[in-house]
Amino acid sequence: MQKFLFVLIALLPFLAQAQVLDQQKVKTNIDQNGNYFPQERVYMQFDKPAYAPGETIWYKAYLMMGTEPSFISTNYYVDITDPNGNVLKHYIMPIVEASAKGSFDIPTTYTGKTVHVHGYTRWMMNFDTAFLYERDIRVVQLKPAANNITPATYKPVIQFFPEGGDAVMGINNKVAFKAIYPTGKPCAVKGNIINNKGKVVADLITQHDGMGAFMLEPVAGETYTAKWKDESGAAFETALPAAKTQGVTLEIKVVKDKVGFLIKRNETAPDKFKKLNVVATMQQHLVYMAGVKLDVAPIIGGSIPTADLASGILQVTLFDSNWVAVAERIVFVNNNDYLLEPEVGFAAINLNKRGKNTLVISMPDLQQANLSVSITDAGLGIDSSDDIISHLLLTGDLKGRVYKPSYYFSDTTDTIQQHLDLVMLTNGWRRIKWDEVIAGKMPVIKYPNDTAYLSLSGKVFGATSSDLSTGGLLLMILDKGKDSARKTIQSFLKKDGTFSEPNLIMFDTTKVYYRIAGSQNLADKTEVAFNVGMPPSTRPIFFDKNGALYFMDSATEYRLRYFALEQARLAKLAEGATLAAVTVKAKTKSKLEILDDTYTSGLFSGGNATQFDIANDPSSRAAQNILTYLQGRVAGLQINASSTVGGTNGVTWRGGTPSFFLDEMPVDISQLTSMNMSTVAYIKVFQPPFFGSFGGGANGAIAVYTQRGSSQQNNGPSRSLPYKQIIGYTGQKEFYSPNYGSFDQRNDEEDLRSTLYWNPMILTTRENHIIKIPFYNNDITQGFRVIVEGVSKQGQLTRVVKLIE
């Protein structure tokens, strides 16, 4: 997908030297706008198309900048609102490998038909909020609506879009139209365009999904009205927008490897329309510029080479001699370069109750990619409103709504391309504010982009530079509550009083007790201010367009409601009131689960890892160090303990070195090899990738936790210590996927999962480009739907859908 967006200055022979200088200035301004103020786009994948109250929505966000994954931002924000815009939950997640993952639990008492998802970065808030990600997620209520409710009657509306922006008198203009219901569903219409003298001047008939086009040459003194009928035969009249008495028009035609343009002016057009400039941009970058003269002839044509452009929306703008934009048209360039096509199949298929299946993803040409996988009951259907390809190439760059946009990427036939051009004619891009760019006025940045993760940092106020000249020490105790382990941190203060622990990523709400080492006088006169990065306000954000449409047939809704009712039945059983005495049924946690809850936090909780209870393992006492203990105990982890002293080349996983952590702080391997095993309580070895590591953790991680005394576990910090409460990233939880091949108390429960498997973070590398995913069927599903989406390092997109029945 990544192609060089070249700049072609096509100066026609009749262009004056003065205009060349003007073009160079404009080119500089466009380059500055694109290079210094690039804009991000977001797409979010969800594990299934709809949910019920009490269920968890699992999601993955992909961030793009231009044609490549975006590395502008480090933090991703999500607001979940009800249909009235009231914020139900505000989330903030770390961005790793240009993506973020999370989940949202729909309240069991929720009565709305949808929840609305807003997704954005702080950097995106500086620009047009119409381009922030938004989506309506359908919520299926357990009790269907009563049959005696009269369905709402919607009247369609029709809009007209002269090509280039305005119809001009005396010029034969193409006029596109779009007829839709208030719900966003297209309406097929048929009728005529009639002038004020009652004469039919054009036919009006839908070509595709409520859209169509006709030719019209406005005449002075005439007005025009559309008389049309909708699908039910109801008659309507709609006035067309008034034509301009003077001006120019811009016509576009897409042919192989180029976009042709035709510019016309009417006879009465003033001089400013006789020397014009054509500018074409893609993702804010200049790809074409040419000056044209219409002083001799009223019509001129040209073409824009597109063979070396990336696929996407090309914005063609026509300027008058004063560099005022007078016409604009967007067009889709499809060079078929955006697809990443992995092979997706099954090594084993078992549709029986709790049968084991193995999905295999094979990446072509050893490409590196970031993928997400959802496997659901086939009866849930598929969300046809948008997908990763249609959103990142099309709808993410449009302000208007598009009905079933994935259709336009289902094939490359001429018919589909003609239908896609109707979408271009009836929507506006308008990311660039031309009046400001031409004037050299750059965007005002109100929200600096997040360049660092939410880590523990701040400043000590009240201390003089002489107080800190010898290097002060700030002692901190991090306390997340009675059920979590506490951490003690020592941070050196700089001479200006600031401190920073960039490797300590903050999750959830944490109380930080603190004191400054040194004299009591220094402690008494100082105040500590903590800063982990403030997320944007959770006040409602109002968008310029309505939420994405959702489509669901009756069979899909019935299947979703069936699963929801069954889950509600199981939840009621789990409440566990029995006989006269009330007995609360709770799942007994294993020793390893208790250890994990006690010692881990954030991205270190749960996960795909091998766990070791060192304190209760007698064999650990015979181990020389941590590495000799792990040797041969973890499949795929290669340890040559004799070669690890002073280096890391003795530990490898998937051809690389894993990350090392001590009490969740990054350390060098030498710190682990020098530890006495008697001080170790718990070891957790994460299989690749581990997203708690910086850089994506493609080679996994080894996390070591030291023994903690009971007094530290059970007693809080001294009441005399001051504390501040700080907010970090939203806590991450793990999707539960049962393993019926192992002993687990949960395996005795009924299995009525509608989502059988969800993995939002699968990283492929050149060494590890074949991924095998085992998963188990539930008790009732007789068919699977597999959806794989993702982005390669080069920005190519993939979406693979497999139906197994």
UniProtKB/TrEMBL annotation:
UniProt xrefs under InterPro entries: Plug_dom_sf (IPR037066)
Keyword Signal: yes
Superkingdom, natural source: Bacteria
DNA damage among keywords: no
Extent of the signal sequence: 1-18
Keywords assigned by UniProt, alphabetized: Receptor, Signal
Coiled coil: none
Protein's UniProt name: TonB-dependent receptor plug domain-containing protein
Source organism of the structure: Limnovirga soli
